[in-house]
Structures are given as C-alpha cells and as structure tokens.
Amino acid sequence: MRSRIWLRGSIFFIINLKLSEPTLTRRLQSLAAFFLISSSALAQWNDTLLRPFVMDHRAGGSSPADVSFLLDGPAGRDGFIRIQNGHFAKAKGQRIRFWGVHITDWSPGSVEIPPREDAPMWAATLARFGVNLVRLHFLDLDSPRGIIDHTAADSRSFDPEQLDRLDFEVAQFKKRGIYVDLNLNVGRSYKAGDGVQDFARIRWAKGLTLYDPRLIELEKEYARRLLTHVNPYTGTAYRDEPAVAIVEILNENGLYLGFHAPTPYYDDELTALYNTWLREKCTPEELRKLRVLASVPEGAPVPRLKSQEAAAAPKERYETEMAFYMDTENRFYENMSGYLKGELGVKCPIIGTADHSHTSSPYPMLASLSRLDILDGHVYWEHPGSPPPLNTPMVNDPLHSTVVQLSRTGFAGKPYTVSETNHPFPNEWASEGIPIIAAYGAFQDWDAIVIYTFEPKREPDWKPYVGDPFDISLDPVRMTEMAAGALMFLRGDVRSARQTVNRTYSREEVLESRLLPRSEQPYYTPGFPLALPLEHSVRIQSLQGPPTKKFTVTEANPIVSDTGELAWSTSPENTGLVTVETARTQALTGFLKANHKVLRNLGAEVTNNFATIVLSSLDGQPLARSDKMLLTAGSRVANTGMKWNYSHTRLENQGGSPSLIEPVAGTVMLRNIEKAAGVSVAALDGAGKPMGETIRATKTAGGWVFPIGVPVTTWYVVSVHRR
Fold first, then answer.
1. For the structural domain made of 86-256+322-460+470-500, what CATH number should be given?
2. For labelling alongside 198, which of 277, 520, 582, 688 has CA 20 to 30 A away?
3. pLDDT, tens digit, for every residue of 539-568?
4. Is the pLDDT assigned to residue 482 strictly greater than 70?
C-alpha cells in the first residue's frame, strides 16, 4: 500500500512543480526506480526494527577503535603545507591528505565555536575518528555564533570572547595534529556603520563581493585583521601558522550571465562596470555592433542580458558578456590572492571558491579559479533544498552519484579538495555515503574530503538525536563510519587510479557550455561517458586548448575501477551494490540481502535489505594477517517520534531523543585469515568502549563466523588470536 501511495503522491507533486523537461524526466526516472525497489525495501521502513543507540562523545576517551594514530601532531610541526607534484605535501616533501569536518552551528543547542572548557574534548573526539582537518566556516557571523561583535554598529569589530574561544580551539586542534581551513567570506552581514549601500537588503552579498569596491575593501580589512591576529595560545599570527593548511577567499560565490543583484544600485553598478570594460576591450566598430545587436542607440550603455535571453542572443553579444564576467572574476581573485600572499604574507595554499552549482556548466568560473593554488568542489546527495523525490539510494544511480559529480572539477597538476559533501539526514540509505566518497576519493587521488558538518553541543546534558539534515556529530552511522573513511582515505588503503583521463576545452567550448541544457549535467561535455570517473581518474588539462576529444562509451555492469579494487553494480530490480576490496579495507554497501556478494576476506549474511559493512585493519597489516580490525555496520537512522510526509520524501516531524538505528543483524564471516586460532569481537557503545560480553566467532569451512545485531551497535573491534 505504501508503494502505491508514494507513487501517486509523488507524481502529483512533480506535475505541479512545472519542471523543465530534462529535470522532469530524471525525476520520473528516479521515481520509477524507487517504485521498483519499494516492495523489496518495506522491511527497511519497518519501524519496529528501530532500536535506541546514541553517540556519547563526552564519555569518550580510551577506545579500541581510536584511529588518531593516523594523525601526526602537532599540526604543522615540520612547517607549512605546500604543493608538490600537484598534491599537498608537508614541508619535508611527505604527501598529506586531509579527512575533515566543518564545525558549524545549525542544530538547537550547537555552537560554532565551543567554550574553552569543551575545546580539548571536541578536539580529542575528532582526532579519535581520524579527522585531521577542520573547515572553520561561518566565522564571519555575528556573535555568539561567529567572531563579529554583535553589539557594534558595524561588522568590522571582533568579539573578544569569541576570538579567544577561536584561538584556544585552534591551539587544541594543532596539538592533536588537526589542521584548519580558514574561510574568509561566508556569512557576513553588513550594518549601518560599514558604509555599504543597501546594507540591510543584500544579506551575504553573494556575487556583489566580487565587484563592489566597498565590499572588496571590507573583505581585505577582515582578512588583514584575522590573519595578522596573534593567537596567544600558539604565539603565532594566523598568516604565520603552519597548522593553517588552507585559506579560502569566498564560499559558493560567483558571477554569471543573467546575474540579478538584490537591489537596483548593484545592478546598475555592474552594468556600468560592463560598459567601462567594453570601452577598454572593444574597438569603436565592435562597440557600435554590440549596440545594434542590443537595439540601443549610439552612445547609450549596452544592457546586460537577462538569463532567459541568453539562448537566443547573437553569438557576439553573448560571448562578449561572458568574457566580461570571466575577466571580472579573474581580476578579483588575482587581486585578492596577491593581497593575501604579497601584502599579508599568507604562506599556505589558497582556494578562490568552490565549484558548487551542478545545474550549469562550471568552466567559465573554473577558468578563473584554476589560476589559484587549489580547485575545490561541493555537492550533496539529495540536498534538502532539492526538488522531490528525495530519500532514494545512490547505489542505484551511479552515473549521478556524488563521486561522478565531484569528479568534474579537478585539474591536472593542482590539488583538488572536496570541502563540502554529505548524505543529508533523514535519507534512509545514508550509510552508503561516507564509505563510497572515501573509497572513490582515494581512487580519484583527491587531496581533501570534508564532511558538512559536525556540530558540537553546548550543554553537557544535551539529549542525543540528529538535530538537522547535515549534522553527523550524533548520527550513530555516519559518525562511526568517519573512522572507517579515515583509514581508507588517509592511509591510502584504496589505491589511486592506474590511468588518468585528461580532457581539454577550447575557449569557445568554455563560453558556449553555459548554453548547454541541464540534461548534460554534471559534466556539460557532450558525449562524455559518466561511468568514466568510476573507472579511471579524470582531470581537466586545459580550458584554452584543443576542443574536447571523443570518448569511448562503455556499458559495463558492474563498473570496475582500473585498479580492480572498486566495483559498482546495478540491476533491473534496482538492488545496487558497491564493493571495496583492498588488502587492508573491504566493504559491502547497498542491497546486501539481494546480492550475496563475498569478498576475499569479508562475507555477510544479514536480514536487512540495505546496509553498509566496512572491515578495516587497525594495525596496518593486511586483513589476512591483521590482529585487530574495525568493523562498522550501518543501516537506517531515525529519531524517536520522527514522522515522514505522505510521500515519504520529507519529514513532518524531526523527532527527538534518543536517536534510533535499524541494527544490521545476521552474521559476518572473516575469510582467509592466516594462522588464526580464534576470533573475538567487542561491540562498542556510543563512546567507543566495549559493552556486553565478548562475542566469540565460530570456525567453519568458509571462515570465522560471528553474529552481529545484538547488542545493538554500529561498530565493533575484531581481535584475531594467532597460533
């Protein structure tokens, strides 16, 4: 019954959205796929299977699942992070990757900057889960969230108490080997004392910060005040702090054809800048032709195109205006990067902003951003701001996965970071997200993966539940999977691709790519096979080179990485499965019950339709010879009292404490374990400590078998006793 209701309700909703044809087609395809799996997935929605299981970071400490050995404290002890052979390296040349989280305040009771008394605890917690980078994001919010003094008449003053908290927090991170990524302009709002036109109406001033002189002046002032500030707990100014791995200039910002400023003042300002640029770049004859094409008289300013006019605009007018936006962004980033490095003396690599909008071509923006040190990307699987249907499994849609979307942005010879990604709650298939992005991020040889977000709770007695879509801090599955992801990504358990496929674009292709339909997303490269990033590493070689070559399209199923370690399979029944099979980490994620896949060292027979099981060596040995392993087993997460809407795509009630899980129940088999005399398993509680009696494995013809699911948990430590 639920399947039929979901289908009818969702189609009704989609039709009334009046979506574009490509978007509607994909939504209907997703809906049809969900309908096909829903009958087999009803047990996944059986709320009688849910059991309480909560994370308890304040009770954390010594844990057999501690992976802080992956970190090398203090952060920056050998000097500044630099770029070597297109990747991050420590001062002495050793390659370093970053596995990170944001510290962000969205859930009730969370804080952007923890109180001093809690900072050591939160730093130690993140280290135990393998986090070696924290993206300090919304620092430019008003206190008590950010460091801007909310009592001041302008946004140019720092709150002393908040700044002190930030300094102490950074010192605690540094001590434990956790680097920081400092964001400069993210959520700053302006006040009467700032001298900003229409300050109350422009909110975060997206787009405007790239061209308005006063806003740029304020951006530079903020950067100077923050980066020259001396942290009393480290004795170092942030510009001289080797624990600062990255500085980001803007967050998710950009200009584009059809850009519409929030007030007429800024629209007129941009049009005036455009006409000044035309007089500098165009000959009188070219300028006269543009006026004719725009149907304006001689001497009149050339108006900017509206977004709906772009497709039908004459080529000369369209390409000229696109070139203006690209040049404006170039000048901004060159100027700001020069200011940070030249005048302020910033020593770490710099990001301009992220490739963040996958509903259009990124290449004009990337032409500017690729002139800086690092390329960066953001994407989410079914962001809550997306149109329905939501709550579908990514394993059934590999060609639109976060892996494929994020792979479009990397450049040959430059580090590539993913500074925002997640499978937002309450997606019932979210256990797939972190292991898949960690495995394929390592395969693609990315330099950082940062999950959005970890929200420290202010009160010691905060009741544990998942308080908003992005918070992983109290999510019993996503949080424990962070440790497994750190082992895969930081330790390099998954090898990088054997082959890198580079692609080039002509300048004309870059300009015209913005006119391509959304059906070409995310690559906006006609003929590009979307399975390619799951088979090989992909990079952009040039945006000013020869036109893109033809690619060979394959229809392989499963899609297997060229290392042979990763495989992504789908089926007509929509029971997808991703496998990771390396010497030190092996994983099964997807519809395990339908697939019955057995790996070299790992097998599972579970009652859950959908689950993710990851087995990783904790002692650095191959699984066949490891004495200690981490096993994570995750399925569905919910809150007590949580209620879905009619179509099972959105929440009507977030629910509350305690958080609930659908335990992964059944048996796990360790296979081909050398010289084992016995295997014992400790189920871990939300603090990472053993609970209940030790589980003993039984030797069978196939391997060592032990039950999971009782006691209720999402992670275990497996010990092998040798002969």
1. 3.20.20.80
2. 277
3. 999 999 999 999 988 889 999 999 999 999
4. yes
